[in-house]
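User: I'm preparing a small set of examples for a lab meeting where we compare how different chains pack in three dimensions. I only have the primary sequence for this one, and I'd like the structure in token form so I can line it up with the others. Please keep the answer compact; I'll paste it straight into my notes.
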Amino acid sequence: MRIVQTPAGFEGKVVGILPLPSDDPDNPGRLCKLCTDERKDKPILGMISLRGLRPDGDVFAGGETLDPDNSKTYRCKLMVRDGGKRLDVRGFIGMALIGRTQSWVREE
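Assistant: Understood. Below is the structure token output for the 108-residue chain.
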């Protein structure tokens, strides 16, 4: 994921994906078949899956994230940790208390 600042806020683009055992070796590019917006049937690699995040104190909030495996969009917030080496990404529906957090580690 590469996260950049845009006029609409911060957004994240998928720059790499891990292959699944079910992936076709002759066609390694997975598509977002279940997506219901403009990303439907588009390649996941290169897709904008985080968007609309804005700084809010020590976190970035107010945006959304897409899970291309189930096509669901979740509200999200990001927390920078360990001096920028780790990013905690929290996706949720409704309140941030009801959700899931993933930790992403910066590639050196």
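A couple of notes for your slides: Strands lie at 2-6, 9-13, 48-56, 59-67, 72-81, 86-92, 99-105. The chain has a mean pLDDT of 88.

User: Perfect, thanks.
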